[in-house]
Amino acid sequence: MSQQLRQRLFAELDSLRLTDPHTHINPLAPAAKTLADILGYHYYTELAHSAGVPREAIEEPGLDPREKVRRIVSGLAPLSNTIQHSWLMEMARVFFDFQEPRLTESNWERLYDAAAAKMAAPDWENQVLKRSKLDGVFLTNDFDDPLAGFDTRRYVPCLRTDDLVFHLDKDAVRQRLEKATGIAPSDAAGLRRAIGKLFEHFTRNGAKACAISLPPDFSPRPVDAAAASRALAAVGKAGASADAQSRSDVGHFVFWTLAEFCAEFGLPFDLMIGVNRAVYAGGVFQGQDLYDSRVSLIQCRELFNHFPQVTFPISVLASVTNQELASYAWIFPNVVTNGHWWYSNTPSFIEHDAAARLEAVPRTKQIAYYSDMYKLEFALPKFAMYKRVLAKILAERFVIDRGWSEEEALALGRQVLCDNTRRIFGVA
Amino acid sequence: MSQQLRQRLFAELDSLRLTDPHTHINPLAPAAKTLADILGYHYYTELAHSAGVPREAIEEPGLDPREKVRRIVSGLAPLSNTIQHSWLMEMARVFFDFQEPRLTESNWERLYDAAAAKMAAPDWENQVLKRSKLDGVFLTNDFDDPLAGFDTRRYVPCLRTDDLVFHLDKDAVRQRLEKATGIAPSDAAGLRRAIGKLFEHFTRNGAKACAISLPPDFSPRPVDAAAASRALAAVGKAGASADAQSRSDVGHFVFWTLAEFCAEFGLPFDLMIGVNRAVYAGGVFQGQDLYDSRVSLIQCRELFNHFPQVTFPISVLASVTNQELASYAWIFPNVVTNGHWWYSNTPSFIEHDAAARLEAVPRTKQIAYYSDMYKLEFALPKFAMYKRVLAKILAERFVIDRGWSEEEALALGRQVLCDNTRRIFGVA
Amino acid sequence: MSQQLRQRLFAELDSLRLTDPHTHINPLAPAAKTLADILGYHYYTELAHSAGVPREAIEEPGLDPREKVRRIVSGLAPLSNTIQHSWLMEMARVFFDFQEPRLTESNWERLYDAAAAKMAAPDWENQVLKRSKLDGVFLTNDFDDPLAGFDTRRYVPCLRTDDLVFHLDKDAVRQRLEKATGIAPSDAAGLRRAIGKLFEHFTRNGAKACAISLPPDFSPRPVDAAAASRALAAVGKAGASADAQSRSDVGHFVFWTLAEFCAEFGLPFDLMIGVNRAVYAGGVFQGQDLYDSRVSLIQCRELFNHFPQVTFPISVLASVTNQELASYAWIFPNVVTNGHWWYSNTPSFIEHDAAARLEAVPRTKQIAYYSDMYKLEFALPKFAMYKRVLAKILAERFVIDRGWSEEEALALGRQVLCDNTRRIFGVA
C-alpha cells in the first residue's frame, strides 16, 4: 500500500515546475560540455580520491577530458553504493539513454560519446532546463561579478559574501572591492559605502538574495564604527598578518553591514552554517572542507533579534543541528529552513531532517530543497532524490500516520518545494 | 500487516487509565472556559506569530476571547501541517463533535460556540478527565503556593524551584520566600531552614515531586556554608547587580540543598535540562525560549554520584541529548528517563528517542510521557500522539523485528506509560 | 513484501564466514565455562545494578558461579525489554536448546545445567566458533602481553595502548614497560625505542592492529623530543602527581609515536573515540564509564593529515558523532568507519548510523561490525542483531528505495561485513 502511495505522490511531485534557489552554475556555461564536466564534480573526485585514486591523477594540469573521465571511472567501483553515484546513473539514464546500472571501464566510452553528441546540440542547455522543469536557477556570484551576458530572470544573481567577511585582509580582495566599487575604503564609513554599491549593483541586476557560508565558531555581533575603522586601518597596513582582533572586527563589521543592507534592499540573507575550510589540505579541489558539528543557532541570537525585517533562510551542515533549525524557525518569524546542505544531502539525513521540519515548522517557512549544482544536469537527479524522500514522508507520516488525504499531502509538498521558494525570494 | 498491528496495539494502549506526571494545570481552573483558553496555548500563539501574526494583535490587553480566537484563527492556515494543529483538531473532534479537517475563518465560530456550550457544563472538568482516562494530574507549583482549595490526590502538587535557584537575587523572590516560610535568611543555615519549610509544606500537602528546568550551562556543584553565606549577603545587598560569582554560588547552594531535601523527604527531583530563556525577546508570552543543544549529562556527574538515594527523572530539550539520557539511565540506578519535552515532543523525535530508550534502558526506569498541558483538554490529543508512536515502535521494533507477542509488547507499553509513573512518584 | 525480502537477505548474510575485528577474548580461555561467565558480562551486571541489584550482591568476593547467576537472574526481569537481554536468549536458544522467552527464577537452573554440560565438552570452543562461522577473532592485548600459548591466526593480537598513553605516570605501568622491553626510558629517544620494541614483539607475533580508546577532550598533537624528555623526567620523578602539562605531554608524545610506528609497521590504528572513564564510581566492574557527546573529529585533523599512510578505523561512542565519521571517511583516504560501539550498539542507533554510512562512504572503507565480546558465545547473537539491521537497510533503502537487485545488495553487505575486515587488517 505504502509503496504505491509513495509512487503516486512522487509522480505528482515530479510533475511540478521548479525554481532552484541555490546553485553554483556559471550562467555563461551552465550545461556540461563533456562527461568530464559531470565526473569532475567534487563529489566524484573526492570520493574516488578517498577510495584510492591519487589527487595528481585527477588534477594533472592540461588533462584531456576523455582521459580525465577514464581515470575517474577507474576509481568509481568503490563508490557504487553511494547516493552520489546514483545521481550519475539517473542522469545518464534520463539524459543519455544509458541503461547500464554502473559506469565501468568497459562501458564508459559509450556514455562519453553519447553525452558528447547530446551536449553538442546548440539548445542543450534549454533541453536540460526543460526536461528538469526548471524555471529559474539561483547563482552564487562573487561580489565583483559584472552580472552581464545572461538572462537574470532565468539565472538569478545572488551576492555571495564569504570573501568580504573572511578575506578582506587579503590585498587581492581589497583590490577587487576597489575595482568593483571605485572605493578604496579607509574607514568604516567608506567600507559601508562600498558595500552599499555592491547591493545597488546586484539588485539593479535582479539579485534576489545575499548569501554566505559560516564556520562553526562564527557568532555575528555588531562592531561600532570607531572600532571598525581602527581594525580596517590595521588590516590595511598588515593584511593577513594583522592581529586577530582587528581581522575579526573587520569581518564582523562587514557581516553586520551586509545584514543592514539586506534590510534596506529587502533581500533575504542565506546563512549556510557550519563549514570548516581546508581541513584535509591534501584533498582534491573542493574536496578539502569538513566540519565541527558542535555549533548552535544560539550564536545568531543577537542577529535574529536585531533584524526582524530580514528573512534568514538557514542551511545547516550537520543533521545534529537540524532540530535547532526547526525550533528557531518555529519561534523566530524571520528564520526559514533552507534545503539539505552538502554532508546532510543524503537520503537518510534528508528523511530525518525534513520529517522534523514538516511536522513543526509553519508550512510557509520551509524552502524544501536546492541542488547546489555546478552544472545544470545535476538538478534532475538531485531533486528526484529529494522528491522520493518527500513522497515517503508524506505517505508514511501524513497520509498513513495522520490520516491526511493525498491531495492535502501534495499541497504541502507543492508549497515547500515550489511556492515558498518563489514567494520568499520574490521570483516569478 | 504492520498497519493493523499498530491499530490493535494503539487501541489497547488507548484504553489504559493514566497519571500525567507533569503539567501546568491550575487546579482552581483546570479546564478551558472558552476556545480562547485553547488557542491561547503558546504553541498556537507562537507558531501563528512566527508565521506572521503580530504579537500586538494576539496580546492586546483586554481582548475579548471571541476576538482573540478570531485573530489566531486568521493565522492558523500556515500551521496546518504541524502536529500542534493536529492536537487542536483531534480535541475539537473528540470533545466538540467538530468534524472539519481544519479550523478556518469560515467555520471557527461554530466550534467556538459548540465548545462554549460544552465548557459551560458544571461537570465539564470531570467530563474531560473521564474521557481522557486521567486519574491524576501533576501540577507545577510556585514555591509559595498555598496548595489549598483542591483535591491533591487528583491534582498532585509538585514543588517547582526555578525561582529559588535562578532568581533569589530578586527582592520580590526573597520577599515571597520570607512570606511563605516566615524566614528572611541571612546566611546559609537560614536559607536551608527556609527551604526545609517549603518541603514540609509541600509534602504535608501531598507533593510527589520537586522539579526544575535548567539552562544548558548549568553544572550542579556543592557550595560550602561559608561561601554560601558570603554569597547570600552579597546578593542581599546588591540584588541582581551582585557579582556573578555570588549569584552563581547562591543558585548552586540552593540547588544542592534542594537535592538534599529530596533525599530527606523521599521526593524524586525532576530535572528538565537545556532551555535558554527569552532568546527571542520579541516573541509572544511563553514563546521566547530556545536552546543551545550543546549540553551534556556529564555536567550532572557529581550530582548523580552524590545523591544515590534520590531518583532523578530527566527530560532533555533536544533529541541529540537523548542518547546520553538513555546511557545515563542504563548505568546510574537513580537516573530515569522522563517524557518527551517541548521541542522534542513531535512524532519523529519521539519515535527516534523512545525507540532508543525502549531497547536499552531497564523497563522499570522509563516514564514514557507527560502532557505539559495548561488546560485539561490537551492531555487527550497529546497522549494520543504519543500512544500512536509507541504503538508503531512496539509493532515494528518488538513484534516484527524481535518476534515478541502482542501481549508482551502491550505489557511493556503499559509499564512505561502507566505503572512506572505511579510507582516512581508513589501515587495510587 | 519487505518482510520476506528482509528474511531472504538476512538468511544470505547469516551464511557468511566472519572475522571479528575487535573483541576482548582471552585466547587462553576464550569460551565460557559456566553461565556465570555469560551473565557476568558487564551489560547484565550493570543493567541489573541500574535496575536495583546492589553491587555488593553481584561482586561479593568468592561467589560461587551458580549463586552469582541466581542473583543476577533475580534482577533480570526489568531488563527483558533490552536488546542485551535478547542476545542472552538467542544464545540460550541456539547453543543450549533453551526455548523459553525469558530467563526467570524458576527456569534458570535448567539453562545453567544445560550450559554447563555443553561447555564441559573438550571441543566447546571449536563448536562455538564453528556454529558462529568465525574464522578469526581479534584480541585486545595489554602492551606487555607475552602473546604465547595460542594460535595467532585464529586469535589475532592487537596492541592496546590506553595504558601507555594515559597511565605512564603510574609506577606500575612504567615498570611493566621496562619488564616487557628491557628499557627504562629516561628520555624521548628511550621511550621511542621501548615503544618500537613493543611493535616488533607484536608484529612478530601476528598483530594486525594497534588500538586505543580516547576521552572526548583528547586532541592528538605532536610533542617535540625536548619537551617530551622534560615531561618524562617530571613524570618519572612525581608520577601521577606530576604537573598536568607534563603528564599531557608524555601522553601525546606516546600517542604520536604510536602513529609513527603504525606507519612504519603498516598497522591500522583503531581509534575508539569518546569515552569518559569512571563517571559512575559506584558502578559495577566495567559498568562505570559514560561520555560527553560533545566531541568532534576535527580534533584529529592534524593526525589524519600527518599520517596519510596510516589507516585509521574509527569508532565513535555516540550516534551524534556518526555523521562526522561518515563525512571524514568520505573525504580522508585514511579514515575508515568501524563498527557500532558500546552505547551505540543497539538496533535503532545501528540503523540510523549504518544507513548514513552505506549511502555516502565508499563501500571499501566500511568495517561493518565487531562484537566487542569477552566470551565467544556472544559473537553469534551480536552479529545476528547487526545482520538483521543490515538486511533491513539493504531491503528498504537499496532494493526498494533505489531499485537495486537483491544480488547487488548482498554483494554490498558481504563487502562491508567480511571482505573489508580481511583486506584492511590483512588477514586471510
List keywords for this structure.
6-stranded parallel β-sheet, 3-stranded parallel β-sheet, 428 residues, TIM Barrel, uronate isomerase, domain 2, chain A, 2 domains, 11 strands, homotrimer, alpha/beta
Structure in a nutshell:
The structure is a homotrimer of 428-residue chains. Chain A is of the alpha/beta class and 428 residues long. Chain A has helices at residues 2-13, 35-39, 42-50, 55-59, 65-74, 83-96, 108-119, 124-131, 162-166, 171-181, 188-204, 225-238, 244-265, 301-306, 322-331, 347-358, 379-402, 406-425, and strands at 18-20, 134-138, 155-156, 158-160, 209-214, 269-273, 275-276, 290-291, 312-316, 335-338, 366-367.
Task: Write structural notes for this entry.
3 copies of one chain form a homotrimer. With 428 residues, the first copy, chain A, is of the alpha/beta class. Chain A folds into 2 domains: 89 residues, uronate isomerase, domain 2, chain A (Orthogonal Bundle); 299 residues, Metal-dependent hydrolases (TIM Barrel, Alpha-Beta Barrel). Helix content of chain A is 50%, strand content 9%. In chain A, the strands form 3 sheets. The first copy, chain A, has a 6-stranded parallel beta sheet. In chain A, strand 9, helix 15 and strand 10 form a beta-alpha-beta unit. In chain A, helix 1 crosses helix 17, helix 10 crosses helix 11 and helix 17 packs across helix 18. The longest helix of chain A is centred in the last third of the chain and has 24 residues. The two termini of chain A are 37 Å apart. The model of chain A has no long low-confidence stretch (mean pLDDT 97). Chains in contact: A-B, A-C, B-C. Chains A and B meet through helix 14, helix 15, helix 16 and helix 17 of A and helix 3, helix 6 and helix 16 of B.
